[in-house]
Specification:
Layout lengths: L6 H15 L6 H10 L3 H26 L4 H5 L4 H18 L1 H14 L8 H21 L4 H26 L16 H8 L5 H18 L5 H37 L5 H47 L5 H16 L3 H28 L7 H20 L7 H10 L10 H13 L9
């Protein structure tokens, strides 16, 4: 059987994977990381690249390795109820709770706010989000090729603009990186590791991974080994581009403090940097590109989330679900970018360890012969620790467990306390009396 795929097709799939991962919202996090990490931005960026680039790529490869038809089938290896619960929470997170509202907030922060007066700002922000998600709803109800056309044009434009900003920042630096602030002073790498959660790309990989595998198979790859090889090559291309962009943005953020001081979010950092180097016109171009890119991302998220919930609740029409999701996103978006990010941190702190553990278990599935107890115990102990850690900074803080974990669990104070319990759970699952193995 000849299932060779041309290198040109592999490159095309690599760029497709990059476009899936790199939403306009991803611009703001490495820039803000650089601002806070200061002269430690190199270590912080390295941690960010692991969770912001490495884990999403592993998530994509996991689908090719598992042979699962969709996320629900993959997560149901743990238990059918876990599959439904985790998949639903994941779609809510990358949909109306955080990622969709964030597209509206980032659009406003970069594309509109700099050109509007401070007077009546809450009212203007509300009006903008209503229009933004109204357009999202319109295109989500009537999917059109314009989404793909605009997306394909915007991705290169955004890359070129970032490259120009990076070149200008290196050729004529804004200033020298300052001292790090907050947790970056002591744990720059591990703090950057957790900041990578904010991209939500590992969660998105569990949704988009099957699209990449289907694209590879459509090009003629039938054998599992060949599919995985092409997926790895395409992933390497995507990872290289993402790593370069994130590193450039982190440097811009680190050097911007001398020129602009400490800013509230990464959107402000990029907008002021574009104004500094290219004037008002440069800032306007950045704003328009980001606004349109966020819009296409919002449409894609609305469409995929509505399709999932329509499958889950077939008695509700796709149209009604889409209206509910976009209306909820418009409402939540008015909290503002900084609050949205702070609200998302506890949820992502809980979900990300589960996603990481699930991805790693997927690669080890054949080794432990798909024993359900391995999945169950590993993810149960992971969840307990990640839940306590995620709630630690909220009013729902579980004080006694948090204090005990801080004292007894290695790595807990840097956000990795779940690692040893996950390993212990996997070992316990291996020793547990055998139940019927799952299919590979």
């Amino acid at each position: 059987m000849n299932d060779n795929i041309r290198f040109k097709d592999t490159v095309t799939i690599g760029f497709m994977l990059f476009a899936l991962f790199f939403g306009a919202g991803n611009l703001v996090f490495p820039a803000m990381l650089g601002q806070q990490a200061g002269d430690q931005y190199g270590f912080a960026n390295l941690g960010f690249l692991i969770t912001g680039v490495g884990l999403p790529i592993l998530g994509t490869l996991a689908f090719g390795f598992s042979g699962s038809k969709d996320l629900l089938a993959l997560t149901s290896r743990v238990h059918p109820w876990f599959g439904i619960g985790f998949t639903t929470m994941l779609y809510l997170t990358i949909g109306p709770l955080f990622a969709m509202p964030r597209t509206g907030s980032v659009s406003y922060e970069i594309g509109m706010k700099p050109f509007l007066g401070a007077q009546h700002e809450p009212l203007l922000a509300a009006a903008f989000t209503i229009v933004f998600f109204g357009v999202t709803l319109l295109f989500s109800l009537r999917p059109a090729k314009i989404i793909d056309i605009v997306g394909k044009g915007l991705t290169p434009a955004l890359m070129i603009l970032i490259a120009l900003l990076a070149f200008a920042a290196v050729a004529a630096p804004l200033g020298r990186p300052q001292q790090p602030v907050g947790d970056y002073s002591a744990h720059a790498f591990f703090n950057g590791f957790q900041e990578g959660y904010l991209t939500m790309d590992t969660l998105a990989a569990l949704v988009f991974g099957i699209l990449v595998i289907d694209a590879i198979r459509a090009k003629g790859a039938d054998r599992r080994r060949r599919t995985l090889l092409v997926c790895f090559q395409a992933s390497a291309i995507s990872a290289a581009i993402l790593a370069l962009i994130y590193t450039a943005l982190a440097y811009i953020g680190a050097s911007s403090v001398s020129a602009f001081g400490r800013l509230g979010n990464g959107g402000e950092v990029l907008q002021r940097t574009a104004d500094y180097y290219f004037g008002t016109f440069g800032g306007a171009v950045l704003g328009v590109i980001v606004l349109l890119a966020c819009l296409t991302t919002s449409i894609g998220l609305a469409t995929s989330c509505s399709s999932y919930f329509h499958t889950l609740f077939p008695k509700m029409s796709y149209r009604r679900i889409c209206v509910i999701l976009t209306a909820a996103s418009a409402l939540i978006a008015n909290a503002g970018l900084e609050k949205l990010i702070s609200f998302s941190v506890p949820v992502l702190t809980i979900l990300y360890p589960l996603a990481i553990a699930l991805i790693l278990l997927t690669f080890a599935h054949d080794w432990f012969q798909g024993k359900r107890s391995v999945y169950g115990w590993c993810l149960l102990l992971t969840f307990i620790v990640s839940l306590v850690g995620g709630l630690a900074g909220t009013p729902l803080r579980i004080e006694r467990l948090h204090v005990w974990f801080t004292q007894a669990l290695p790595l807990y104070d840097i956000g990795l306390g779940w690692v040893l319990p996950a390993c212990a759970g996997a070992v316990l699952g291996l020793l547990w009396p055998r139940t019927k193995p799952l299919e590979s």
